[in-house]
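Troubleshooting log. The previous structure file for this entry was overwritten by mistake, so regenerating from the original sequence record. Sequence copied from the archived sheet and checked twice against the printout by T.R.
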Amino acid sequence: MDERIVVAVDQGKSGTRAAACAGDGERRQAVAAGAEPGTTGVHGVVAAVAGLRLPRRPPDVVAVGTTAAPAGPDERGELARLLRHRLGARRVLVAEDSVTAHLGALGGAPGVVVSAGTGAVAMWSDGQRCVRVDGLGPILGDHGSGADIGRAGLRAAFSAAEGRGPATALVEPARQHLGGLGLDGARRLHASSSPTELVSAFAIAVLRAAGEGDAVAAEIAARAADALATSAALAAEPGLAADPAPARPRCCAVGRLMRSEALAAAFTRRATELGLTVAAPHADALAGAMLLATNGPGPAFADLVGAAGH
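Regenerated output below.
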């Protein structure tokens, strides 16, 4: 009898990863493949799954967590049907990556997870319900995100260069990042095919400068940490307000920005002040997609997952 084949996919704006498990218990083996950076959407999912060493038959279940997941349930279901057709899978589940980040970080346990990358979103769940805060995009939200930090850092660098703002170590990194700090640099940014990505990429330089003691960068990092912790606390309000009050809600912060010790430390301090217990994530979003594939979304995330097949 053929072993059940389960595939998990984690897709971000810079690329796609996939992992497969076959069999049960100790006989399970997982491998991973990454589509080329920039290969996203349906093509990215198909390319990553094709890169896995699978038996010569389609997978039984494929679960996809993606930044490109449609907002509406009907649209998520349509994407799941399209992927099922392309992959030949028996069943396909599609969720936004905040769902798979939550499942991966907490292993399906209750708590709140803040994802901080180009954008930022907080998701709380107690296993039966969930609350999502932010993830509104760089114009209306994404407080504390890479786009938020990068924009603040670039503005600080331009202001320092013009003499309207305090001196900062961000001036030279910003000059190199945009190819200048005058009108030419601004024009290059606005003419970019992905200005949000270009701005967000500068967040790494800002957080590095904050860790090295630059006062302007440190203030930007502190504001970002406060914004991310606030999103976490707002999402976790049902847990914080429960009567009788349970233990302090568990909180994990994930995403590339959290590799910065300066940001991670400031976030931990502020989230603790707001009543959360900060813990290290159990695993990543790819592991969360595998949990979604094997266990399903559960009642908490059922409305956020599109499905096709059975």
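The first helix runs from residue 41 to 50. Archived copy saved in two places this time.
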